[in-house]
Design brief:
The chain contains five helices and five strands; from the N terminus they run H-H-E-H-E-E-H-H-E-E. By secondary structure, the protein is of the alpha+beta class. A five-stranded mixed β-sheet has the order 1-2-3-5-4. The longest helix has 19 residues. The chain is globular.
Length: about 160
Amino acid sequence: GQERAKQYLLEYVRQTAALQEFVKTKNSVADAVLNAKLMYCKEQDIPAVISVDKNIRGLTQTELCCVLGNLLDNAIEAELKLSKAQRKIEIKIVMIEEVLDILIRNRIAESDVQKVKNIGTTKQDAENHGFGLKSVREIVKKYDGFMDLYEDSGCFCVHIRI
């Protein structure tokens, strides 16, 4: 459980230490996850617009890794379905007083908000997928937070406040 997650995070941080630094906050886990995902975006020709506060707090390191990792994995996966000219991810993470506010926007080829809201995945093999967003929802619920999935101008948006 927790010990395995802690070891995973430590290994993740160690492996990503050599990555190009796109983001530098006061949170090493946020930096590791964001920089790893942004490096992958760069390799896959997915432009990313990012705005991140220096003082990210409010979640445990494991929860933060889960939330950011799952949301960015989903956004990147959706972008890879588009032509290179259409791709773009926007990441905004801010602290509003003591509230962590996360907004991830990615372009989409077709509407899938209702599928995600209702079954948790748009993949054909739904039995083996959909756990990432479910985990994010559970973390948001644990903190009596807010989570909204919506479409805006051809983008799929996930907005979380914890």
